[in-house]
Design goal:
By secondary structure, the chain is α+β, with helices and mostly antiparallel strands. It has a domain at about 35-90 and about 105-115. The protein is about 45% helix and about 15% strand. The chain has five helices and five strands. The strands form two sheets. The chain has a three-stranded antiparallel beta sheet.
Length: about 120
């Protein structure tokens, strides 16, 4: 483990860093199943349709989708590491110290929309 830390200190330390073991297991497994480049439809299927291909397209249009994309014809492909980084950033946890208003974002015209 980390030096003189016992398991409770280790778990507390990781909570403060917002490292969730379940998330990392999920993301590691997903990394193994994803090819280097894949479509939105494929990504949606692999994550159990938690986000639809359309939701990912909307995120791209708003400039908040994965940072690395490949366009071939009408299809958009995501690069694996960029997609996993984006997905990790979208994972939310019920945390008592997080205010609910922080889950909403406002566009320049004051139209609220929920983060994916």
């Amino acid at each position: 483990m980390h030096g003189d830390m016992d398991i409770q200190d280790f778990l507390g330390h990781n909570k403060r860093r917002k490292l969730m073991f379940g998330d990392e297991i999920f993301l590691d497994q997903l990394r193994k199943e994803l090819p280097p480049v894949f479509t939105r439809e494929f990504a949606s299927e692999k994550i159990g349709r938690i986000f639809s291909a359309k939701s990912m397209s909307n995120a791209d249009a708003l400039g908040i989708g994965p940072s690395v994309k490949v366009r071939i014809g009408k299809k958009v492909g995501y690069e694996r590491d960029s997609f996993l980084q984006w997905l990790r950033g979208k994972m939310k946890h019920d945390a008592p110290h997080v205010k609910k208003e922080n889950t909403f974002h406002y566009m320049h015209d004051s139209t609220p929309f929920r983060t994916f």
